[in-house]
Amino acid sequence: MERTKFVGVWGRVSWGSVIAGVITVIAISILLSILGSSVGLFMFDPTSGDPVSGIGTTMGIWTVVSLLLSLAAGGFVAGKLSGSDGMIHGFLVWASTLIIGIIFVVMIAASAVRLTTNILGSVTSAAGSILSGAGSMVGSGVSGLADEVQNVFGDIEFDAGDENTNVRQDIRTALRKSGVKEFQPEYLQNQMKGVKTDFDRSVKRLATHPNDAESIINSFLDKVKKRGETYAQNINRDDLNKAIANNSNLSKAEVDKAVDEYIELIDKAKTQGQEQIQNLEQSIDQAKRDLEAFKQKALEEADKATNAAAWSGIISFISMLIGAVLCIYMGFFGTRKTRQGYEA
Length: 344
What we know:
By secondary structure, the protein is mainly α. It has 9 helices and no strands.
């Protein structure tokens, strides 16, 4: 049997062989991916506490193995068909597969971005009507930190109390005529309403600016402290006596009695208000600790995710590097098999 000299086919690049190798890589990758998906479904156990336990690691290992097997097969096919320069053809198969893979990833990512943009556009157009009818301070698109802020601060209850209606009408009228705001029956209750208003506004700001939680909370506590100073101030009995006497037709004895009753009511309201403010401050301190614990946990999870992504990148790099060496070697091996058919 007459044999052809191998020198005659040396030194050329057969792009047809390279394409055949790439097609082989893609086909075998798809085949092994289907098999891997089936294995993953078999491992899924919805009845267990962790139904996906071990699936991620298994699929990661299987992906690497599938990649290496596919590249090895593609490099061999390219080397076998080219009949020469198998290492070059194997390398070109690996490089072409890598480029095609990156192009597909970019195309998929671009499609995802376009789809996301369209969805966001629809959501934005409907946002006005949704927010106008929603009582929640946190929208559906808020981050996990904002959700946690809503959880820890949104559950804090603060009752501003009812207006003091136990003050006699003639005394109430006299106090209003005095024009002294500290003597007004609703003065302390308005301070409590102010605390509640400040708190509600702070929670709304926390929901929309969770990263500024520390400054927002401290600013609110400063306001509470200033309002709380009102409860530490004692009413001047002589001034109160004059205010009632000058603006009513009561006798001195009736004025003294009215002053005693009013100061008793005010002292009771102050005690209740101070207790409510103290309870609110304690609740906020606990919420701050809960939020800090969540933030710390979130940072730890983010650190784990970053490390996992870094290791994934390193493993991918090593896998592709091994794949390149394997593809080059199999191309060389395929060429050697072809050469055996041409030379003695």
